[in-house]
Amino acid sequence: MSISNLEDLFEHTLKDIYFAENHIHKHLPDMIEKASSTKLKTALKDHRKETEEQIERLKSVFKILGKKAEGEECPAIEGIVEEAGELLSEIDDKSTRDAAIVSCAQAVEHYEITRYGTLITWATELDLDKEIKNLLRDTLSEEDSADEKLTALAEERLNEKAKG
């Protein structure tokens, strides 16, 4: 995709996060399976359901813009997911692996938070439909909440148990 203005950049980034959300949705079951903490498994399962809703919101944004909902490969999220898989394959201790899962999941959340924050700012600058900004804000709020929940899990002894 050729990018020559902010509108093009907005569309590129929208396709990027659409790809990222679908990629994350596809790979979350791997993390869920590797988690040993019941609370962590539940948090990841809940976030996978949220991710489905986030994908639907993105489809709505594309529709409002009169564009086809499609992703553009996102090497950043692919790298984060690949690194997580490699890291988790090296850890045998369940508590340590749970701590690593939280860390990897937060890396994903932080990536998403930056993308949604940027899209909201650009949507405002481009004077896009208010509904687009609302849909993006709803997802940003969920991503912030997911990050806070992961931090709470880590502080709730997952890191302490991993110390050995």
UniProtKB/TrEMBL annotation:
Residues 41-68 form a coiled coil. Pfam families: DUF892 (PF05974). InterPro entries: DUF892_YciF-like, Ferritin-like, Ferritin-like_SF, YciF. SUPFAM superfamilies: Ferritin-like. It comes from the Bacteria. CDD domains: YciF. Keywords: Coiled coil. PANTHER family: PROTEIN YCIF. This is Ferritin-like domain-containing protein.
